[in-house]
Amino acid sequence: MPTPAERRYGRGLGFKLALFILASTTAIFVGAGAYSYHAAKRMLLAGVRENAVNLIRAAASRLEIPLAGVERIPRYLARRIGQEMPDAKSLDRDLEDFLAGNPDVFGTAAAFASGAFAPGARRHAPYFCRKDGRPAKVPLGYEDRYELENWYLVPRELGRPVWSEPYFDESGGDIVMTTYSVPIYRTEGAKRTFCGVVTADVSLDWLRGQVRKVNMYHSGYAFLLSRNGVFVSHPESRYIMRESIFSLAEQANSPELRAVGQAMTRGGEGFARLPDFMLGQPAWLAYAPLPATGWSMGVIVPEDELFADLDRLGRTVAAIGAAGFVLLLCVIAAIAATITRPLSRLAATAAEIAKGNLDTPVPAPASGDEVGRLSRSFEQMRLALRDYIADLTATTKAKERLESELKIARNIQMSFLPKHFPPFPEISAFALHAALEPAWEVGGDLYDFFLIGPERLLFLVGDVSGKGVPAALFMAVTKTLVKGIAEQEADPAEILSKVNKELCVDNESMLFVTMFLAILDFRTGELAFSNAGHNPPALIDPDGAVSWLTLPRGVFLGIMEEAVYKTSRLTLPPGARLVAFTDGVTEAMDPEQRLFGTDRLREVLGRTCGMPPEIMDAAVMEAVRAFAGAAEQADDITVLTLLYRGDVKT
């Protein structure tokens, strides 16, 4: 019979179990509901964004079509006047016909530079506008100074048609308008002379009427900004031509509204959340440019209208979840009472196992229900865990030993390569530097250089097929053979030939090496070189021109014992550079699987050709790493740069 303490413990465990399951379930429901709500909100917002942007584009296009129609006639008139200057009557008739045939245009003028219309005539600027709905010629109002107006000055200075900022024309049209001005040019031979401008005025009342037709949902509205952010159209009349989006942002100290204004005045297109003070509540703005005028149109929609349906759905889901929570509470309370006791015994055993005592047996299950199956599974897990820990301990020791051996192998391999630079400080006839970066712990690339007698330098760059320990061993053997044979042979082709024969012996794994080997007589500049299937090095002339060294043909080392190699020669002028590298440079790939290639290498070498060899090598390595980015290094990378100075001082 259970003791009072056990009963209290049992009741406590059941309560905790019920509380935990309910809390977890509630958290899952709340999390899933919140995620669904926000996901639906994002999808809805994306749909609204697309609809809003499409709407604003369509509205902008509707405005662009008549504006484009307005632009055609002034362009035509400016071109025709530039070809043949009309008389005053013909010009008046053309302007009047243009105004009569274009109901969207309020006024038009042809304003000429001093002396351009007729000899002796200082200025001439006929202006027609609508009076009582009909075209009428009226005085411009400032005939003696129109050359100072922006609608005249800006197209003259820019040399192209321009839409002006909105302004109130208190002299000629006596309305708020914007003007499209097209410069007139006359070409005589190769000389192009500015003669004046042809203009077309559009009333902003017409534009505002078009903007008022744009709306979204119940209370959304549209507005229009000029290039400088001034409100050209807005439901609040106190904003029009008096406020700008930047002045509102400044008054409210709102960086968000300022950023939106900057995007709109720069001709951007987008969908952004507005500060609450704009409508007194959260709202969203879709905006798009009017390319013809350089203005921007925006549509504002209150946020509560965007998400009204989603909020109703959320309340319904919350009510259903609350009912399900109550039902789940009753079910869990009944189940907890039946599973508490065997779980308590299982928990005690688990506590012993948690202390590391994996030999403690799990109590045998008294039933075949879920708790019984859990007990059997727990016993199997205990046995498997014990075996796994034993295996893991052995595997970890083996892995640590292998990693330690690979680190030692890397240190040994890198110690094979010359790494003290400058290598021959007492010799000023040349400068030399090399760098190698293996793809794995150990790699198959190699380079070497050493003096052959007092006047000659042997240097090489090679690449072993494959990577890892086999390639590293083959690399070490190759390097040792080259150095030993070079002490007996002075011809690069003979050195490669003998190294090839040695490598072919018992090469059952069919590893091979590509190699470029050269011997420089640094007193005369003569370079003798041979090739075994390696990349052509880059030859940089003293003037910085980059080309690829033409190499004699030669197959890989270690493949064909009877392979024949040839020696080529050239004389390096003082200041010339030779950059040898492995295919790990040109075949490095970025995350999109594009190759670094020879063009990028040529660009890096051309940019750094005046720098010391160590700087050039570092620049190549950094360019390859920057190009590869997050992509895994696929091959070893080696670069060797030789600068021949020619001024021999030992």
Short note summarizing the structure:
The protein is of the alpha+beta class and 650 residues long.
Beta strand count: 22
What is the CA-based Rg, rounded? 42 Å
Q: Kindly state the mean pLDDT as a whole number?
A: 82
Any idea what the CATH superfamily of one domain is called?
PPM-type phosphatase domain
Secondary structure tally, helices: 14
Strand content: 15-25%
Which term fits the overall shape? Answer: flat
From the 3D structure, determine the CATH topology of one domain: Phosphatase 2c, domain 1
What is the CATH class of one domain?
Answer: Alpha Beta
Helix share of residues? 40-55%
- Which CATH architecture of one domain is right? 4-Layer Sandwich
Quaternary class: single chain
First and last CA, distance: 102 Å
The low-confidence parts are 5-10
Q: Supply the helix-strand structural class.
A: alpha+beta
Most strands sheet: 7 strands, antiparallel
Q: In words, what does this structure look like?
A:
The protein is α+β, with helices and mostly antiparallel strands. Among the domains are: 85-206, Beta-Lactamase (2-Layer Sandwich); 215-306, Beta-Lactamase; 418-644, PPM-type phosphatase domain (Phosphatase 2c, domain 1, 4-Layer Sandwich), CATH 3.60.40. Helix content is 45%, strand content 22%. The chain is built from 14 helices and 22 strands. It has helices at residues 4-83, 88-100, 150-158, 204-212, 245-252, 255-265, 303-306, 308-354, 370-416, 468-486, 492-504, 583-586, 597-608, 613-628; strands spanning 107-112, 127-131, 134-138, 162-163, 167-169, 175-188, 191-203, 221-225, 231-233, 270-274, 283-290, 295-302, 430-437, 445-452, 456-464, 513-521, 526-532, 538-540, 546-548, 568-571, 577-581, 637-644. Strands 1, 2, 3, 4, 5, 6 and 7 form a seven-stranded antiparallel sheet that branches. The radius of gyration is 42 Å and the shape is flat. The model is unreliable at 5-10 (pLDDT under 50).
